[in-house]
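hi! just following up on the protien thing from before. the input was this:
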Amino acid sequence: MIDNIEYRELKDFSIYDALEEVQRDSWNMPDRELVPKRLIYATQKSGGVAIGAFNDNELIGYCWGWTGKKDPYGVFIYSHHNAVKKQYQNLGIGYNLKVKQREWALDHNYVYINWTFDPLQSNNCYLNLHKLGATCNTYHENYWGEMLDDLNKGIDTDRFYCNWILNSNDVRSRLVKEFRNYGDLINDYEFHTIATEEVDSLLEVTNINLNLSFPTIFVQIPHNFKDMIRRDKEKIVDWRKKTREVFKTYFKRGYIAIDFVIDKKNKTMNCYHVLHNNNLAKD
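and the predicted 3d structure came back as:
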């Protein structure tokens, strides 16, 4: 963990050149995919929010969003970027940027922040669903169309559209590190929607179950998305197709993604989305 990281709202246009560099560094984003600095600045000047993370006055990350309005949320902040330079990743900076964005939104009387993320990227799932307490029951196929950065090239850009209810009891509890333990359920494969096997150290789907009716169920995903893209992109394409069917089926039946679990045992790392259906829980 790096000490003395400073977080502040980006109001001075002179710093906005650095936002494009953070995009390049964080995501290996080709220039044609960059969001221009002037567009980010325009949204900030129009009531949106851009918050930067600074290490000794160097901008090392930022979180950016703007005002949106759609049913059933009403007015909310749509958070489009949460980017941190590679050498500073996995140090809690992305988490802190989202927390600062939440503080800003509450100060400006917003109830919700929404954003999209890839349900196959375990690091993002863990941050968004587990640590921050966002939820999701909306799945979009190929939401962004073809993208050319390292994590998306050649793969359909399916996304969760998640909802962060900023002052809910669940979100407040997550931010003080109060989490539910799913240990008993997760060890019972009766609650699993996906069966897997490991081949050449890469996880493959062997079967999916679309007929579960328990209040809480689990959807496994690979823990090593980036490694799988590098070694065998076709396996990720297969994961995309199979999990797309699972999520769309269960969301349609009233399930909501409420958490994300990383289960470490026997020198392996297993990652699971936690889906819950309140209506079934009441039966």
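The two ends are 46 Å apart (CA to CA).
The chain has nine helices and twelve strands.
cheers
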